[in-house]
């Protein structure tokens, strides 16, 4: 089973956006390297189902861990009296992209696992029970 095309494009777009947003935040190419896993996974998943799913999930976990850590750290340092800077906006956008990716990945995994479970049940049912 493969991820829907819409989900794969969301992951690719989101990972690219997070990479671009990470540069002005001072992360340099670090975010780009993290996002590459999700992009590669989304690109290879239609051909290599299991490997693609694994790379997508690994990239999503890795990227989320770093983005959420940086976002939480930044939000704890920011107080309501200080100005909203472009860096703060970039961080908030990155966190929103990471959350959107995680929701999409979890939704796809649940959909795929339910489908696989239904297929396994259908295959394990004896043929005489299906005819009668």
What labels describe this entry?
132 residues, mainly alpha, 84% helix, elongated
N- to C-terminal distance:
30 Å
Counted by DSSP, the helix tally is 5
Shape: elongated
Strand tally: 0
Portion of residues in helices? Answer: over 70%
Element-level helix/strand string: HHHHH
Total of domains: 1
Poorly predicted parts:
none
- How much beta, percentage-wise? under 5%
Radius of gyration: 19 Å
Largest sheet: none
Mean of all residue-level pLDDT scores? 84
- Going by helix content, strand content and strand pairing, the class is mainly alpha
3D structure, described in words:
- The structure is a single chain.
- By secondary structure, the chain is mostly helical.
- It has one domain.
- It contains five helices and no strands.
- Helix 1 (5-27) runs antiparallel to helix 2 (30-44), helix 1 runs antiparallel to helix 4 (86-124) and helix 2 packs antiparallel against helix 3 (49-77).
- The protein is elongated.
- The two termini are 30 Å apart.
- 30% of the residues are buried.
Short description:
The protein has 132 residues and is an all-alpha fold. The protein is 84% helix and 0% strand.
List the helices and strands and how they pair.
Elements: H1 5-27, H2 30-44, H3 49-77, H4 86-124, H5 127-131
Helix pairs in contact: 1-2, 1-4, 2-3, 3-4
């Amino acid at each position: 089973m493969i991820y829907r095309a819409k989900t794969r494009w969301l992951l690719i777009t989101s990972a690219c956006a997070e990479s671009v947003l990470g540069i002005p935040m001072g992360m340099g190419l670090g975010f780009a390297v993290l996002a590459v896993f999700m992009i590669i996974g989304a690109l290879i998943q239609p051909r290599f189902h299991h490997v693609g799913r694994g790379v997508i999930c690994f990239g999503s976990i890795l990227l989320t861990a770093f983005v959420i850590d940086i976002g939480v750290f930044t939000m704890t340092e920011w107080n309501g009296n200080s100005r909203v800077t472009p860096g703060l906006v970039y961080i908030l956008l990155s966190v929103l992209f990471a959350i959107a990716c995680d929701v999409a990945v979890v939704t796809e995994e649940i959909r795929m696992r339910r489908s696989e479970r239904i297929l396994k049940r259908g295959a394990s049912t004896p043929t005489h029970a299906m005819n009668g």
